[in-house]
Amino acid sequence: MTPTPRRLLLAATSILVSTAMFPSVLFAAGFAIREQSASAQGNSFAGVSAGGDDISTVFYNPATLTLHPGTNISGQASWIIPDVELGNAAASTALGTPVTGSTSGNIAPQALVPSFYASWQMSPDWFLGFSFNAPFGLTTSADSGWIGRYHALGSRMRTYNAQPILAWKATPWLSVGGGIQVQYTDARLTSAIDFGTIGTGQGVPGGSPGDPAQDGFAAIEGDDWSYGFSLGVLITPEPHTRIGIGYRSAMDIDLEGSAEFGLSAYGELIAALSGAFQPTGGRASITTPEMLSLGVQHDIAPDWTIGAEIAWTRWSRFDRLVVEFDNPAQPDDLTEEDWDDSVFLALGVTWRANERLRLRTGVAYDEGVVPTADRRTPRIPDSDRYWISAGVGYDLTENMTFDAAYTHIYSPKANMNLQASDPGNEGRGNLSGTFDSSADILSTSLTMRF
To answer: pTM for the whole thing?
Structure first.
C-alpha cells in the first residue's frame, strides 16, 4: 500500500509515543523486572511464592510475611548486564528508498535495580510490612546514525512502587496477606524523524527520503501516579511442605507529558506548512498486567529443599496504544501490539551445607509475549528466555545474613519484520533483522533481624 502524504505526516508526529510507555529491553517477559530478591534469584525464583530465607518474597506473595517473626530489614540490589544486538538488518523508507546506518553494537545499557523491605511482628498472629521496588522499566539506547533510528533511538522507563502490607497467621497451617501498591511511572522516548520521506510524500520540493542530513529529532516524556493491590495465601499442609499463591493486580497508568522536536532546515519548512512538529502536550493510557503465581517448597531431606514455581502474567492487556495530542495538527495515533499472555516456569534446589551456609541453584523458562516478527520492535525485542542461576546465603552473625546470586539468561534469535504499511509505521518505514540477546545478572542483599 502506498502511503498518502497525510498518513506519512500523522505517523511521523507519533514516532515516539506509539511505544512511549514500553521503552526497554528487559530480561523478564514484556517490560517487567523479576529481579526483586537475591536469595530467590539463586533458585531462578523457584518456589518464591511459597516463601524463602528472607522477607523479600513478599513482593510475590504478601502472606509469606508470617514466616519471619520479630523485626526484619532487607536491602537488595541487582546489576543487569544485557547484550542485545541486531544482525542481518535492512531498512527502507515508506517510498522504498534504502535507509543506511550502523547495525552493530549493544542497544541495551547496563542497569541497577534496587529494592527494600521491612517487617514488624505486631502480635503472635499479625504482621506489618513494607516494600519498595521497581517492578517495570530499564533502558535502551542506540547510536544516532543506526539503521533503526526512525523506529527508536533512546528509551527510558522507570517505576517506583511502594507497598504497605498486612499479613495474618489465621491457623498454624494457613496465612493470608495483602498490600496496597502506590506507583510512580516516568518515561522518556527519543527517535529520528525522516523529513525527507514526509516532504516527498507531501510534494514539498527538495526532499531526499532517508537522508540523515534532513532528519529531525523527537522526544516525549510523561509521568503518572497509579494504584493497585496484592493478595496472597500460604498453606503449610505438613511441616516440610509449603504452598503459596500470590497475586499482583493490574494498574492503570495515564501518562501526561510533553513532546519536543529538533528540526533540520528542511524539517522547519514542513513544520511551517503543516503546523505539526511544534512543542505540544500529549497523553497515553496503558494498563500494566496482573500476575498470578503458584509456588511449592518441600524439604526432601534435613539439608535439602526443592522448589517449583509457575507464574501467569496477563500481557494480552497490551493490545493497542492510543495517543492523544494537544496540537490539533497532530491527530490521535493508534498502534497495534497484540501481545500474548506469558508463563514463567522454574525449578530449583537449596542445600544447607552447615548452620551458616546455604547454596542454591535453579533453572527457568520465561515465555516471550511478542506474537510475531511484525510486532517485535527495537524498543522491546522480546522473545523466550532460558535461565540458569546459582546463589549463596551466609549468616554473618546470628542476626545478619548476606545473599548473592548470579544468573545467565539466553534468548533464541528473534526475527523482526516491521512494515511501513502497518499502523503507525508509515513515517518510520520498513525495518527487518534478527536480534541476538543474552544477559548476566548479579544480585546481592543484606538482611538484618531484631
So the answer is: 0.89
